[in-house]
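Two folds, back to back.
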Amino acid sequence: MDMKALSFSSRLMHGTDKPCPTTGSLIPPLYQTSTFVFDNMEQGGHRFAGKEEGYIYSRLGNPTLAELEAKMADLEGAEAAVAFSSGMAAVSGVLLHLLKSGDHVVASDGIYGCTFGLLDMLEEKFQVKTTYADLTRLEALEGALRSETRVIYLETPVNPTMNLIDLKAVSKMARQKGIKVVVDNTFATPYLQRPLELGADLVIHSATKYLGGHGDLIAGVAVGGKEEMEAVRLTTLKDVGGMLSPFDAWLLLRGIRTLAVRMDRHVINAKKIARFLEDHPAVHQVLYPGLESHPQHQLAKTQMAAPGGMISFRVAGGRAGARSFLDGVRLCRLTVSLGEVCTLVQHPASMTHSVIPEDARQRMGITEDLIRISVGLEEPEDIIADLTSALDPIGGSGKAPLTDRDSRLA
């Protein structure tokens, strides 16, 4: 059999995995070590000089991490990958590699709050300026570009507004101007969306989320070209030090093996939950790419294999309605993070995106009535029962009028 012709789901388990050559172990071993022994002084010197392949120190490379990086490169269709200690370590590692003082970034509206905070810090301390734009509109992107723009940084779907960005169109425009496109693919995973195939230059994951899938690790991964990734490894990873522990890498490899079956169930459940929410009188708007009411529903059908397991919705009663709902759930867990087996709910405006100034949050659509749900793997009827018990006391009287921004997207 031609192992290179395996389907994506089979590659999750077999693509880069090989039995341990020493022991025959089916599962790649955990190399829980900080450093590696040299045979002699010459070998140590050659490895530090890059004249000989081999391991030196786990911050620079580790066999367990190498297994993970090979797996992620294969799944994203990339030449190479670098593992980090968190999603934000991956984001900062990539951006610090790509940017210097005086450069300019265009970022998608509504990005993760800590990414916003990082870009804010880069501007304050290193004079790397960022312009936020509604990248669902190519004219908005074109208007935000400058001669010093070096990076277009985006999420799609966007956290938490669930907007989709046309990766082919954005990448084509960027390529014409010599700008790198960096995509946070956390919400979709490579099972549902592969940005490099659509023209992006680098992809970042908070592997804490769907890739790990069980809420028991924190990790990040960056993938891209071999030279680019090696430069990231030998600069920002080595010198800033955001290395993933071998044990977390081993856990992550375990989680990745079940990604397909988990994502399939996340999607099935999310579709049912989204339809339920759309019909509930206490819900003014449901933001889910799998619904025909989503403004980029057609793009979702062509850019993604399925619409994913994340939903946002606007509840009646503004902040008070959001508080009533979040305090009323029992099965669903009120917590940040996403992509694990349990259903998680949170309030972006006061939690994950609270670092963004209020006027910017409003412009981006991160309003006080917005709730984000990471739909889990429970029986959908149980999730719906819990949501019903939390929504029914709020009441409501149908759909709220579209905001100006919603009208542009409709």
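---
second:
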Amino acid sequence: MKILLPHVLIMDPRSPHHGQTVDLLLEDGSIVAIGDTLDALGATVLESARGRLVSPGWVDGRARSGEPGHEERETYTSLAHAASHGGFTHVAVMPSTTPARDSRPHVEALHQATGSLPVEFLPIGAVSKGLHGEQMAEMLDMLEGGAVAFSDDTHSISNPHLLQLALQYSADLPTHVQSFAYERHLCPSGQAHEGVVALSQGLSPIPTLAESLRIQRDVMIQEYAGGHLHIAGVSSAEGVEAIRAAKARGQQISADVAIANLIGTEEDIRGFDSTYKVLPPLRSSEDREALWEGFMDGTLDLVVSDHQPMDTEAKDCEWGQALFGAATIEHTFGWYRHLYPSHEALERWIEAVAHRARELYHLGTCEIKVGMPADLTVFALDGSAEGLATKGVNVPSWTQNGRAVGTILGSHITGLA
């Protein structure tokens, strides 16, 4: 089957066609021609792509599905449609399900359940059995079953010996270990960033020390054990600086920032709207500025949606009882584009979600050139995403200025006609 995307602007700094307005011809899941006014004979012309931007398909480095265990919050199908609506063709899904994804059968079951969906799911396996932080899960078995990385998600890895073993075990494997940057024992009842807003509203604080303390510990363990350590959910200026210093020493460390922390601040929680109750918490404007600088200079490798959909029961209650998390995957790009509208910011976005994320998850290269797979995101630099595919009710209302128009992954075409 031939597909023609007419008069599209290529946005891919690694492509020889970067910045060019061209026709893009696809056939049997591959890019077969790129040029001016290509012959459309026998091809289906996707007119809704005309005049839009096209990049390699975006990869979301962290999201969650309610399935299995909490299908009322999100199913694999609803997550796939929400992801493609947000412009993502691949989604790394966390192991914090019920039961936890801590064995090869669980990883293989995810692949089997999602193989026909328009988005490729990248299973992240648990570091510890049951996410209990005690006994290491069968990482090699899960890797051979299709896992791409390992994490205990926001349960974090409190046991330093467990993190050491996981890093040593994975050191020679094509994978990495993720550690959530949060020392929970420092603030076991924390509800919001330790700042003027939490103080004025009587909320138990989560200091930035809880993050920097954990990052410094994990960095020291990685320096001793080796392996590839990924710091998940950096939210503070201190955290950025700790990672910058570790990278300067040559340590094999990568890191990400959740879109909520790159967009929001503690001011968003003044109305006690639990939609904005996320972990790590929304911090100060100074922290947000440091996160932005860290992302732009490469200290922070990725922006992730950190999608965590919730149902009404989990969020429509008092702040202290509401669960952490926001449903973000459909609006990640629009929010980013509104707050950071420069061309440099756009190119950094593409480098991160289209290329660096692929490197971290060992997906292979995906540049827009003849012979490469048809794995594409079509997007616009204005407007906002309309409608919702997620089942999550906890979608923040930050302003958008940009949206995904559609995605193409092999034979799957969504949002384009």
